[in-house]
Amino acid sequence: MADLLLGKPVGDGLSEATAAQVEELKERGVQPTLAIVRVGERPDDLSYERGACKRAEALGIEVRKFVLPAIGDILPGPKGDGPAQIASSLERQLFDTVERINLDPSIHGCLLLRPLPEGVNEERICNALRPAKDVDGITAASLAGVFMDTGVGFPPCTAQACVEILDHYGINPEGKNIAVVGRSLVIGKPVAMLLLARNATVTLCHSRSADLPAICREADIVVYATGRPRAYGLEYFANGQIILDVGINVDEEGNLCGDVHFAEAEPVVEAITPVPRGVGSVTTAVLMRHVVEAAARA
Ligand code: NDP
Question: Atom 41, ligand 1: which residue's CA is nearest?
Fold first, then answer.
């Protein structure tokens, strides 16, 4: 039976240190503040926002919400605007909102809930944010920071959460063979870079990787981040492995599950993060730490 690498103790440990930093900042007259920008009422966004607000409140971090209407809720203008004009009007509103946040010295960090609606240039909106307020690694400058260790911006919170879990459970990545499955800019690529910086030997895998089961079986640690419900079964696992399952999926019965077939992994591997109660529960704690660090840097 594998050890469960639960996220809660990791998040609690991070939050304890963050709470102390919040107190210090408040004594210096600084109220750490996070802006959350949301378009519409997508259930995933609302759920993440609720988690972030709860964590922020417990830590004494202020949250200011900026909510824009979903594309379907925007009324066509007098000339009967089509979808392209409506998306472009939403893009302008998002751009203005980000600019307001950039210019407001009382806001230290910004969480932009994504994906943004189709037709909106997400890259342009992300890069409009000042890197100093980019607490979730969405700007090119922050990602460059992850790759080049420039100290600008912050790494994406979920990628950082993976590293925090390893640290908390005393698993040193140095010298280990680590396979990362998934190469998105949100998780796969940044987590690979963060682990490389910790002297792991990293193999970054994707949908075209040949013989993925063999690559995974040979690794000491595997990070799965592909968004494929219970897609990785017995043939991917080996005794003694550590598994970080980043996937958050809903199965056909409506239950939350990871990318890993947990029931097949658990009897084989040494330790695994469950879904839910694993990586996801560390992400908001990392976000709050980034907000407080941004406030301290400001
Ligand atoms: P993306 O869709 O952006 O990326 C998925 C990656 O998986 C791509 O690189 C893709 O490869 C790869 N992939 C797809 N199919 C396969 C396959 N058959 N074999 C190997 N690789 C494959 O997803 P995200 O990175 O944004 O998210 C991944 C998962 O993490 C999702 O379940 C998401 O819900 C979850 N998530 C969890 C968070 C948390 O806090 N725990 C936060 C954010 C996301 P290719 O590039 O070749 O297409």
Answer: 280
**Contacts for 266 with CB less than 8 Å, ≥ 6 apart:** 1, 2, 272
Model confidence, pTM:
0.95
Q: Which of 203, 144, 195 minimizes the C-alpha distance to 172?
A: 195
Q: Whose CA is nearest to atom 42 of ligand 1?
A: 158
Give the other-Cβ count within 10 Å of 169's Cβ.
Answer: 15
CA-nearest residue for atom 48, ligand 1, is 207
The verdict on the CB of residue 204 being under 6 Å from ligand 1 is: no
Helices marked H in 28-156: 43-59, 83-103, 122-128, 140-148
What's residue 53's pLDDT? 97
pLDDT tens digit sequence for 202-260: 999 999 999 999 999 999 999 999 999 999 999 999 999 999 999 999 999 999 999 99
For ligand 1, say whether the CB of 225 is within 6 Å of any of its atoms.
yes
d(CA 159, CA 277): 16
Nearest of 125, 263, 282 to residue 191 by alpha carbon:
282
For 166-205, write each residue's pLDDT tens digit: 999 999 999 999 999 999 999 999 999 999 999 999 999 9
Peptide bond into 117 cis (omega under 30): no
**CA-231 nearest atom, ligand 1:** 18
